[in-house]
Design a protein that fits this description.
The complex is a heterodimer of chains A (990) and B (216). Chain A is of the alpha/beta class and 990 residues long. Chain A has 30 helices and 39 strands. The longest helix of chain A has 18 residues. In chain B, helix 4 crosses helix 5. Classes of the chains: A alpha/beta (990), B mainly alpha (216).
Chain lengths: 990, 216
């Protein structure tokens, strides 16, 4: 028989068989045995808690579905963060669901790690503690990260029960120079609270307050409040640092003095203020200050710092005129041997114009006072080396990674008889320990912390622990103490009881529901101490050769990886560094002139050698470093800590000397020079950068303040259209709209739109990670990033503007996401109508219709459509992105896409539909602000606003009318639903 | 050549009829072709007129409806009879499947809901032994084990169906799930991947036909 006939017959028979298949073969439904009174399956529950991904302590609400935490959102009632969360906070979920978590207790033997029971481990520890206490005092060490509140007090009490006070709260970034500088100038050894929101001029000396410094979310929010263009004014921001980082991208002006001379520049500015008669001082104090400042002449400072005299005088004039102003210092990247003196100089500068007590406020207590200094850590190492420590317990800190290798931590740590890690992840320090007890993560524990004066912020579990074998560290310590026969905790038997101690149930409930107890903290007035002049200002020393070839190394904290603690989280590794746009890798930033001199180009592998160590990293040519400086990000170079972190990149802290300290006992991160030597090998940089220049496309626009005041805007290419062309385009658009205005499209529908205010956006990428969490975005990894197959639905684009030789160039940043074009180029080309326009103004993408021609992505001028090249959601795929239990985090309201399907930003349509259904069922109208996409919700700068453009009273309708409003690539007539508001830059004199 | 053709055609016909028979086996005889007019949730079961249901003459109270000769639907771990609970005793659907009114997804009743009655009621035989199915339930509950019910109704994972919106609009459960109150064993009445059924109703009532209403 013929083949064709056979196929016809076989086809008919086949259909008959197929139609008989059951729709759900074999799937089971498991009901609850006892249902919860509060939990409605399908409706999320929120738990107020506190983020512990860094010491800032922002208030969060953890969204749970069916008792699984799936999203971290901000707590609007909380004074730290005010409802906003940074990328690290969003990524806390990946720490919770890390497949490489410690799930059970381990004991280290010669053969490696062996399982041990909790009881055996507790017994061993209790015995060792008893012996240590019997041998003498301070033979037990308990090391945690920065901590405060009830559990912190309990740890001290626990330690004292074993006759020890050897307690360390070790943080790599401990801001010792700020504390010591405050003591030297004001007699108060504390870190003050800063008020960026009230400032009308911000002068930063290396403080990365938009990234990792102190409390970055809260300070970003405040800074955006002041720095945005509103009512015809904005605060000017001048950044003084040898390497232009993310924070300095928001600066109106970048000044790059010689490395180590920032403090001197601050004094030069203060002197200039006094000289110009603009100081806010009286009486004897004024005389003392004037006398002190006399030696810092503009000419002398200019010579030493390399900053021109007229610039010094101008900045001084501006700083004194725009009151209240604010000067900040103390960033880790510029923490050199004279960091304390630099911070003291900035204190003086603030004092001279009267900022202290206004934008610089001291309170009775600050959370940083109790944090140990680097000097305390080295003293502990010396004690261990001398055999004075019998038992050491380490909890939530990783000194083996963040201390310089030259400090000899590992060696000394091994001398301790019994080392115990209370760890949720197997980091470098835990790997050294004899016993590893599985801790819970902050999303599963009870605690209360005091991140700011007057703030008691509660931490409560958002779900039962993911892994049964884990126990909260405080509970483990209680059990150990009980086993050792010690009474601690004042009757509390669990961590929860420790937290609730002394609180009546109603007060505890209220605190848990709102996130904590918040009270205004009284400001403590301070005055300049009479002998402030005893602080000696001189340029810091750098290790290594001062002669021509050697370059000062700046090791800077990564906004995503922080001090390395974020490296185990795929979302954070996948976040491109905002300056270099590189993800998953280490690099060394080299100025173009230096690169020319050394004959290196992007991707060339070089050995970076200091007197203390050597690492190998690829070069990235970057105009944002001084020619005599190279920079490397901190955070990579782990030798443990999970599959995402292990053996990836290099750790620049290995290049530091252990004895490089400043006057406060802090480690001088910026203390050495390095030489670069070509290896002759190259590597590919996993960069997501397309073009570093806009090439006249008018994507990220900015206008000068002077221009904005006159109503001017930076025009894009659409300005070159003639009136006739403009009319023709408008007529075509109108006729298209008329033809499309049929059926349901003609009914009154909302039109969902976004505005993004570029004068607020700082480029922090919190929106990117929030989107990953909300929309089940897969982490594609380094290899696929090299192939430009990243899946981020919203990305930050960074463009340079101006001549990048020197410091006079601008950086334009723009979050780019699907523009939900009314006139979308992607819609007409889809052969199956998977891409289409919804009646409420969205560009819909229907995954089950998509057949993967990728024509839509080819047609999209914004390049915001992303293709699933692999089956990221299917077990067994080579790039499976949701290894158990990471799949617990998946949002059940959003489809997990399969291979061959196109995806893109949907304006969080699931949130829109959820809110619409809720309103319909409850018979109420939706109000402006009821619906917030994940990106808008988390943005610390409040740059993104979402709403219904057909509602004239909505915020988005109002912002769209702003004179600064424009459409990206507007000349293409795509009619985007995203309106950007031009950034405003104060150029020239403020 | 001709003989082969006839043989193949005959074989195909056989396959086809077997397949169609299989279809009806799974879906239940006389599967609904038209949605019944809206009724209040499980009112006294209206006679379908099809003449196949043994409930047609039953009034609440008294003996349970007799089982038909052949049961439709897959066997479940416990032989739970909707025709007794929802049919004869007229328990509202939302009594057990309460999340249909307040959530996107619908729940199976928790075992504590079942035990609300069955901690007392056991339909004992003359010797006082509880009905074996109720005994199974009590055993599951005592052991704290979830009953592994076989799933009947599931829409594809790339669509999201808001039950509460449809319940709030006054739709009877039977509209999509069939006359559950007459089913000794539940069987699927609609093909959940047949979007045409959904869009037909939406068009009739003039509600949204937007894809992203359910697909996101």
């Amino acid at each position: 028989m013929e083949r064709r006939r056979f196929l016809q017959v076989a086809g008919v028979a086949g259909i008959g068989v197929a139609a008989g298949c059951a729709p759900t073969s074999g799937e089971r439904l498991l009901p609850y045995v006892n249902e919860s009174d509060d939990l409605i399956p399908g409706i999320p529950e929120f738990y107020a808690s506190t983020c512990r991904e860094c010491p800032a302590g922002c208030g969060i609400q953890v969204k749970t579905r069916e008792a699984r935490a799936i999203k971290v959102e901000g707590n609007p009632a909380h004074p730290v963060g005010h409802g906003r969360v940074c990328a690290r906070g969003q990524a806390a979920l990946q720490g919770l669901y890390d497949p490489d978590r410690v799930k059970q207790p381990w004991r280290r033997t010669a053969r490696g790690l062996e399982p041990v029971t909790w009881d055996r481990a507790i017994e061993q520890i209790a015995t060792a503690l008893g012996a240590a206490a019997a041998s003498g005092a301070d033979r037990v060490a308990l090391v945690t990260g920065a901590d405060s509140g009830a559990l912190d007090a309990f740890y001290d009490e626990w330690l004292a029960a074993f006759r020890s006070h050897r307690r360390l709260r070790y943080e790599a970034f401990a801001y010792e120079p700020l504390r010591e500088a405050s003591r030297l100038t004001f007699g108060v050894a504390a870190v003050p609270e800063f008020d960026f929101a009230s400032a009308r001029y911000v002068l930063s000396f290396g403080a990365d307050f938009l990234e990792t410094w102190l409390s970055p979310v809260e300070y970003t929010r405040q800074f955006a409040e002041a720095h945005r263009y509103h009512d015809g004014r904005m605060a000017k921001f001048v950044a003084v640092e040898p390497r232009r980082g993310l924070t300095a991208y928001s600066a109106d002006e970048w000044i790059a003095p010689k490395p180590g001379t920032e403090g001197l520049l601050a004094l030069g500015i203060a002197s200039s203020v006094v000289r110009q008669g603009k100081a806010d001082l009286t009486g004897a104090e004024a005389d003392r200050v004037r006398g002190f400042c006399a030696r810092f002449t503009a000419r002398g400072v200019a010579e030493t710092t390399g900053v021109a005299e007229d610039v010094i005088d101008r900045v001084a004039r501006e700083f004194a005129a725009a009151r209240p102003s604010l000067a900040v210092a103390g960033g880790v990247a510029t923490q050199h041997r004279a960091a304390t003196q630099a911070a003291a100089a900035v204190n003086l500068l603030n004092y001279v114009v009267g900022n202290v007590g206004r934008t610089v406020r001291y309170h009775a207590a600050s959370p940083w006072e109790k944090v140990s200094r680097y000097r305390d850590a080295t003293a502990w190492i010396a004690a261990m080396q001398a055999g004075a420590v019998d038992v050491a317990l380490v909890h939530r800190t990783n000194p083996a990674f963040t201390l310089p290798k030259a400090a000899g931590f590992a060696d000394a740590f091994r001398k301790v008889h019994l080392t115990v890690a209370l760890a949720s992840h197997l980091d470098e320090t835990a790997e050294l320990c004899d016993l590893i007890l599985p801790d819970v993560t902050p999303l599963e524990e009870w605690s209360v912390v005091e991140p700011a004066a007057g703030v008691r912020s509660f931490v409560q579990p958002a779900m039962t622990p993911v892994f049964d074998g884990t126990r909260q560290a405080a509970d483990a310590l209680l059990a150990i103490a009980a086993k050792a026969g010690k009474t601690v905790g004042r009757g509390a038997a669990t961590a929860r009881e420790l937290v609730a101690a002394g609180m009546v149930p109603t007060a505890l409930d209220h605190a848990l529901q709102h996130g904590g107890e918040f009270a205004a903290a009284p400001v403590k007035p301070v005055r300049l101490v009479p002998d402030f002049a005893r602080v000696v200002y001189r340029a810091p020393a750098f290790d290594g050769d001062a002669g021509g070839e050697a370059l000062v190394l700046i090791a800077y904290p990564s906004a995503a990886l922080f001090d390395g603690r974020g490296a185990n989280k795929g979302w954070l590794q996948e976040l491109p560094d905002v300056a270099t746009k590189i993800a998953w890798q280490s690099w060394v930033e080299v100025h173009p002139d230096t690169a020319l001199r050394l004959r290196v180009a992007n991707g060339d592998l070089v050995t970076v050698t200091s007197p203390h160590g050597r690492v190998e990293a690829p070069v990235y040519v970057y105009p944002g470093v001084r020619p005599d400086v190279v920079a490397m990000p901190i955070g990579q170079g782990h030798t443990a800590y999970g599959r995402n972190a292990k053996h990836r990149g290099v750790n620049p802290l290995d290049l530091l000397g252990a004895d490089a300290v400043d006057a406060s006992g802090a480690l001088a991160f910026c203390s050495t020079r390095v030489t670069l030597a070509k290896t002759g090998r190259q590597t590919r940089l996993a960069t997501t950068e397309g073009s570093a220049r806009q090439l006249g496309r008018g994507i990220a626009r900015a206008v000068s303040l002077a221009g904005a005041l006159k109503g001017e805007v930076e025009a894009g290419p659409e300005a070159t259209l003639t009136d006739a062309e403009r009319a023709a385009v408008a007529a075509a658009a109108a006729s298209q709209r008329e033809r499309a205005n049929i059926g349901v499209y003609a009914k009154p529908n909302p039109k969902w739109e976004l505005t993004i205010d570029l004068s607020r956006c700082t480029g922090c990428q919190a929106c990117v990670t929030a989107c990953y969490a909300e929309n089940n975005l897969p982490v594609v990894g380094e290899e696929q990033t090299l192939r430009h197959r990243g899946m981020a639905w919203i990305r930050l684009e960074r463009y340079y503007e101006g001549d990048t030789a020197g410091t006079d160039w601008q950086v334009r940043q723009i979050p780019m996401l699907c523009q939900q074009c009314e006139n979308a180029p992607c819609e007409p080309v889809c052969p199956v109508y998977a891409a289409y326009h919804t009646p409420d103004g969205l560009n819909g993408q229907i995954y089950n219709r998509c057949i993967g021609t990728r024509y839509c992505a080819a047609n999209c001028p914004y390049k915001v459509r992303y293709f699933n090249w692999w089956d990221y959601g299917t077990v067994g795929d080579p790039y499976f992105a949701f290894v158990e239990p990471l799949n617990w985090q998946l949002n059940p309201d959003v489809t997990v896409r399969t291979k061959g399907v196109m995806e893109k930003c949907t304006f969080c349509v699931q949130r829109i539909r959820f809110a619409q259904t809720d309103a319909k069922v409850r018979k109420r109208e939706l109000a402006d602000g009821d619906i917030t996409p994940a990106c808008a919700q988390t943005c610390p700068a409040e740059a993104i606003v979402f709403g219904d453009a057909h509602d004239p009273s909505s915020l988005v309708s109002r912002l769209k009318q702003d004179a600064r409003g424009y459409h990206a690539l507007g000349m293409l007539n795509t009619k985007p639903g995203v309106t950007y508001l031009e950034r405003v830059i104060t150029q020239g004199e403020a | 050549m001709k003989r082969t053709t006839y043989l193949l055609a005959g074989g195909a016909l056989l396959c086809l009829s077997a397949a169609l028979a299989g279809v009806s086996l799974v879906r239940g005889q006389g599967a609904e072709r038209r949605a019944p007019a809206d009724t209040a949730f499980s009112a006294v079961p209206r006679s379908s007129g099809a003449g196949y249901s043994s409930l047609d003459g039953v009034r609440p109270g008294g003996d349970w409806p007799a089982l038909p000769r052949r049961l439709n639907g897959p066997a479940q771990p416990i032989f739970y009879r909707h025709d007794v609970h929802a049919g004869q005793y007229r328990m509202p659907c939302l009594y057990c499947h309460n999340n249909a009114a307040n959530s996107w997804t619908v729940n199976l009743p928790s075992e504590s809901t079942c035990m609300g009655c069955h901690i007392v009621t056991s339909a004992p035989d003359t010797a006082g032994n509880p009905d074996p199915e109720i005994a199974k339930l009590r055993d599951y509950y005592a052991k704290g084990v979830s009953i592994p019910w076989v799933r009947i109704n599931k829409i594809p994972e790339y669509s999201h169906f808001p039950h509460m919106r449809h319940v709030a609009a006054g739709l009877a459960c039977q509209t999509c799930h069939g006359n559950i109150q007459q089913m000794p064993r539940v069987f699927p009445v609609r093909d959940p991947s047949n979007m045409g059924w959904c869009t037909n109703c939406h068009m009739q009532r003039g509600v949204t036909r937007d894809c992203t209403a359910c697909h996101f």
